[in-house]
Amino acid sequence: MIFYFTATGNSKFVADKIAVAIGDNVINIADCVQNRQYSFSLADGEKVGLVVPVYYYGIPIIVNDFIKRLKLSAKYEYYSYAVLNCGGTTANAETFIKGIFKIDAIFGLKTVDNYVPLLKLISDTEIKERLDKAEREIDIIVKHIANKDTGTYNSMTGIFPCLVTAVAYPLYKHGRKTKKFHVNDNCVGCGLCERICPRKVIKRKNDRPVWEAPQCETCLGCLHRCPVAAINYGKSAKNGRYVNPRIRF
């Protein structure tokens, strides 16, 4: 089984490709958290994978919470792996997983950076090139998984990974302020943002979304997947919107 967390589709894209290649199934971490499902039984020889995005050079809070609660029952030792997908580098994100979960192999993978509050989205041509390259690298990852190779296969850590994570991740952990979200007049009250919010902090009032908690994951799924681009976070309005074009939600 492959557990994944995604907002814009990158982790689902990776998890789906691995699952097809090795004949596995995928499980959405957000669904597990909402249903309070943390216990799973493994079949003999079944592998366990984690495919998660890198947030501020760490992992999403919801993923960290899920892994801490995850209980796997198996008759025999199982092979486990994690794939960290990032827009640039992973820094020291892998330590968040290694510290709380038995892991045999760690992989790093560059997909498409879509943190538009800070960065302008790359062009469609660049997105295609980035995803084409990611698919080739996933093929390599699949071979390692099939062979049950162990070790760290992450060349995406960048310079001074421990320092970078130590400085950046607290900004995410203690930030994530929902007050930065705002909605323009394009909103049609479709309710998609409410349905897909992994923490269920979005509620509709007068057919417009309202963030009812002071913090969320800041996954930006609501922003990127809004069909009329009505949701913004800070000064994100002019930096583009992104949903992985190679998956279907």
Describe this structure in words.
The protein is an alpha/beta fold and 249 residues long. The protein is built from eight helices and twelve strands. It has helices at 10-22, 29-35, 61-69, 94-98, 124-146, 161-173, 192-196, 221-225; strands spanning 2-4, 26-28, 39-41, 48-53, 71-73, 80-86, 105-110, 151-153, 181-183, 202-205, 208-211, 231-233. The strands form four sheets. It has a six-stranded parallel beta sheet. Strands 3-5 form a two-stranded parallel sheet. Helix 4 (94-98) links the parallel strand 6 and strand 7. The mean pLDDT is 96.
Based on the model shown, name its key terms.
about 250 residues, alpha/beta, Rossmann fold, two-stranded parallel ribbon, 8 helices, about 20% strand, globular
- Could you give the distance between the termini? 19 Å
At the fold tier of CATH, the topology name of the largest domain is Rossmann fold
Spatial order of the strands forming the largest sheet: 2-1-4-6-7-8
Total strands? 12
| Parts with pLDDT < 50 across at least 5 consecutive residues | none
Overall average residue pLDDT: 96
Our Rg estimate from Cα atoms comes to 18 Å
Q: How would you describe the oligomerization state of the chains in this entry?
A: single chain
The CATH class of the largest domain, by name, is: Alpha Beta
Number of helices: 8
CATH architecture of the largest domain: 3-Layer(aba) Sandwich
| Total discrete domains | 2
Give the helices and strands as they follow along the chain.
EHEHEEHEEHEHEHEHEEHE
Major β-sheet annotation: 6 strands, parallel
CATH superfamily of the largest domain: Flavodoxin domain
Q: Percentage of helical residues?
A: 25-40%
Range of strand content: 15-25%
Which shape, going by the Cα principal axes? globular
* Secondary structure category: alpha/beta
